[in-house]
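Lab channel / #folding
Pinned by the channel admin:
"Please post every new chain as: sequence first, then the structure tokens as a reply. Keep commentary short and put observations after the output so the thread stays searchable."

First post following the new format, from NK:
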Amino acid sequence: MTEATTANPNNKSRRPRGERLDMAQQLQALRAGTDGATASETATAEAPAQSRQRPPQQQQHQQRKPKKPQQAQGRQQPSQQKQQQQPQQPARPQRKVHPALERLFELYPNLFGARFLPLKLGVYEELIARHPDDFKAEDLKVAMGLHARSTRYLESVAAGHPRHDLDGNVAEPVAPEHVHHAILELHRRRSQRTGEDLRPQLVARLARAVEASGLDREAYAVLVRSRDANNNAVLDEALAQLAEQAAKREALLRAFEASGRSEKEFADMYGMTQADVTRTLQRARADREAAAAAPQAPEAPETSETPQATATPEAAETPAPPETPAAG
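Reply from TO:
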């Protein structure tokens, strides 16, 4: 019975699976001739029992190990698929340059080369007269139009650089209305390209253009005002900014005249540098002289009815700006 019970692994009366034999029991088993069967069965029984009794965390850890390379490979697959799905964008083709412009660059690199300069009015006719064999009239007209509408050329006009002849000599200043329209066109292009609100920069640049023109604010407004409501609104904002600055300069000049102090003492009193005070006072005095020299408009007679022929400068239609110099 003892041998049968020990040898039969399905017998319910055998020892529990996790139980180990002590030395005395092993000797008894050897004597009974059952050591081989019992030891092998016990080892076989304990192996699966120990694997079943391992904590679930260890089992999960063993299961995750072979999956790590697959997970890493899975993380790389979306990027690889994305690269495969996105076709390579073809290189942007270079813009073809008009043959007449290439010839102009060869003839006048200082005017049509790395740096553009405003060209004097009538330069188209001058080019035809100088180079009758190099240009056809229609081709040159198209090329000069492209040149005058380029951003680089508009930048030179907006900067207020003087116009030059074909020999590179200064011919005449750029008209204030040409500077004004070049600034507006550059602003329009940059706004479309960047999508940013560049209105403050536009207002400040127009204000500087008004001051550089040498005209008073009213004369400048009559000269450049157009039918575009948005452009007129920006112009009015720039003129209002200049008027505010002029009012501050006039107030400073009056305070200086009433103080009876020197410019240095006045600057120390207001916490300014003497150079700033001197510059501001000079501007204020120049504003006074310009206002005194400006012709006074005659006063309209007091009548109950205003003639229909009378119109304000704002209501008068401003003629279209002259053509760019490149168009001749």
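NK: The chain is about 60% helix and 0% strand.
TO: also worth noting, Confidence is low (pLDDT under 50) at residues 1-7, 35-53, 69-74, 300-328.
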